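Schema walk-through. Below, the input block comes first and the output block second. Nothing else is stored per chain. Lengths vary across the set, and this one has 81 residues.
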Amino acid sequence: MPDLVPVETLTFEKALAELEQIVGRLERGDVPLAESIAIYERGEALKNHCAKLLGEAEARVEKIRLNADGRATGTEPLDVP
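--- output ---
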């Protein structure tokens, strides 16, 4: 495999695109077993990273404050443990 960017540095969109490529390769079945295992592990890390980023985004959306008119007045900082 070529030099890979660390998963934790990828944006959601880039991680999802790479994950889709991995799934496609595995579904085609044209990858040697050893490489299949390596890209499956990378895919699992990408899936977890996407889930984490999506969870953080959902938490931010939930924290949007609304005024009496129902319009957003701002957001509160996300409390990330």
